[in-house]
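Q: Hi! New to this. If I give you a protein sequence and the SMILES for coenzyme A, can you show me the bound structure?
A: Yes, paste them in.
Q: Okay, here:
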Amino acid sequence: MDTWRTAIVDAGPDHIRVRGHDVLDLMRHATFTDVIFLLHHDRLPSPGERRLMDAILVGVADHGAGAPSCAAARLAASGNRQSPAAAIAAGVLTIGDEHGGAGSGCMELIIAGLEQARRDGVSLEAVADRNVADATAAKTRLPGFGHRVHSTIDPRVDVLFTLAHDAGVAGDGIRFVRALEIAIARRIKPIPLNIDGALAAILTDLGLPAMAGKLIFIVGRVAGLSAEVLEEYAREKPMRIKIPVQYDGVPPVKNGQ
Ligand SMILES: CC(C)(COP(=O)(O)OP(=O)(O)OC[C@H]1O[C@@H](n2cnc3c(N)ncnc32)[C@H](O)[C@@H]1OP(=O)(O)O)[C@@H](O)C(=O)NCCC(=O)NCCS
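A: Thanks. Here is the predicted structure of the protein with coenzyme A bound:
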């Protein structure tokens, strides 16, 4: 069998190193957020970056039992009492472009936008305006904007952007999503940047690839799913979730007709 290649962990009988750092030192001195950063990046975070990444993970950890990922995990736990792993996996499987994963699409938009501005020598504001005009003409939604609950402002965004400024991380990614927000308000209507869009701008400014927009959300949300599943098992009866369903298909078919 061919040897697998990896630059993440080197594990042997007398050592475990994460990107070169001895895991025993990390256990003594690092936080879990440091290690999440280290695993996905190629270095440990600065103190400001640690605070920022921690805030992202806290912000996405849970959004109530009715959020699609939490509801799916509870439904699976309600029907399958033997496998918390299956219930958590069910929750993770709901994460996509519409729920929790819009950060990846938003990062693709930002990365392409920054590249276009550099290549064509035009302002970020001009590129953002063109992106919104194109999305309006194509009747598509801009990932990272709008929220079912926080329809006027997502309060988590300002906290993250303030921490990003404090950490010296805020850069063109944040400038670009703010330019998109202004262009959206002018061309469509005021639609607030949501936490997926904020996370996307920050992860771009940290130099991570677009897929990180989904992955970092998943890492944070698994903590919430774990608690949701634990509570479902501890408090509720098996099969307690009954979803009201109204049949509106063909009426009963008589034999032979
Ligand atoms: C989150 C979302 C599903 C909420 O949708 P919603 O409840 O229908 O949003 P609202 O009622 O506030 O606004 C609806 C109108 O604004 C427009 N709109 C909402 N979000 C938009 C977006 N991201 N881009 C462009 N237009 C948008 C819709 O086209 C709609 O117009 P219409 O009624 O003429 O079709 C939606 O904003 C969306 O798809 N956002 C992009 C994906 C995303 O970022 N998801 C992560 C959410 S945390």
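A: The mean pLDDT is 96. Let me know if you'd like me to explain how to read the tokens.
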